Amino acid sequence: MIYIGTAGIPGCCKGCNSIEGIKTISNLGLNAMEVEFVRGVKMNLNMAKKLGETAKKYNVKLSIHAPYYINLCSEDKSKIQASKKRIIDSCERASKMNADIVVFHPAYYGKLTPEQAFEKVEQECKNMLDMLKKKKIDNVYLGLETTGKLSQFGTLDEIIKLCKRNKKCRPVIDFAHIYARRGGNINFYEIFDKLKTLRLKHIHSHFSGINYSLVEKGKGNEKNHLPLDQCKIDYKKLADIIKKKKINITLISESPILEIDALKMKKYLNL
Ligand SMILES: [Zn+2]
To answer: What's the 28 CA to ligand 1 centre distance in angstroms?
Structure first.
């Protein structure tokens, strides 16, 4: 099964609420939407439930993107607490709307070595999973996204290792971030090969073009997202691999022209 949709409400529906957003997704011939809590979790639980009902009616798969202000490796304990609260609040809403994954950018290394950061992120994820258990929320995965800056925890290998050790954690593959972080390089085969160890029934992913600065050969930092046709990432090839390998995947467009590029991807996949 392949789901394709947008990060947030489609651009053609600017000013719409999320419910209208879901209907628009369906009208466009798409079938997924990532609800964006990127600037804070403001939606109440009742609204989350309504959203879930609408999504079910229109056959749209929902996911949630937690706020950007998250750093599980902060030196300031209160910032870690606040980060976890944002993720837990997002999970509560995800549970109400039957979204199975809450996506977040886990952390910055700061002064920690990558190994220390791994331990810290893992410890905090375990703690959040305990908190979710206490709240009897067991239908939502913590979605750790592959990040686009060298200062951020979240290489593909780090995320896979963490998810391998914690079954309720899932990788979120951001193809553009991987490309930027590797200084304008991506190998789709390698990504899917590495993911095999997790035996996922379904992969959650983000796609877009991306602007990046090259730090040295093979290393870069993301700058901003771009439309697919302004970037060298070969998404046609990705679509071919997905079809050939029959990969179950959700593809969320984070392009500035959200639904236009989502529809482009749909076309590449002959759906
Ligand atoms: Zn993200």
So the answer is: 23
Domains of the chain: total: 1
Cα 253 to middle of ligand 1, angstroms: 11
- The model's pLDDT over 22-54, given as tens digits with 9 standing for 90+, comes to 999 999 999 999 999 988 999 999 999 999 999
Residues of the chain predicted below pLDDT 70:
none
The Cα–Cα gap between 218 and 215 comes to 8
d(CA 246, CA 228): 23
pTM score > 0.70 for this model?
yes
Distance in Å, CA 171 to ligand 1 centroid: 12
Q: Which domain holds residue 175?
A: 2-268
Provide the CATH number for the domain around residue 80: 3.20.20.150
Tally Cβ neighbours within 10 Å of residue 137: 16
Partner residues linked to 212 by β-bridges? 222
- Give residues with Cβ within 8 angstroms of 126, minimum separation 6: 166
Q: What share of the chain is helix, strand, coil (3-state, %, to 5)?
A: 45, 25, 30
* Residue 180 near residue 224, CB atoms below 8 Å: no
- Identify each DSSP E strand in 87-187 by its residue range: 101-104, 107-108, 141-145, 152-153, 169-174
- The closest of 125, 93, 120 to 109, measured between CA atoms, is 120
C-alpha 147 – ligand 1 centre gap (Å) = 8
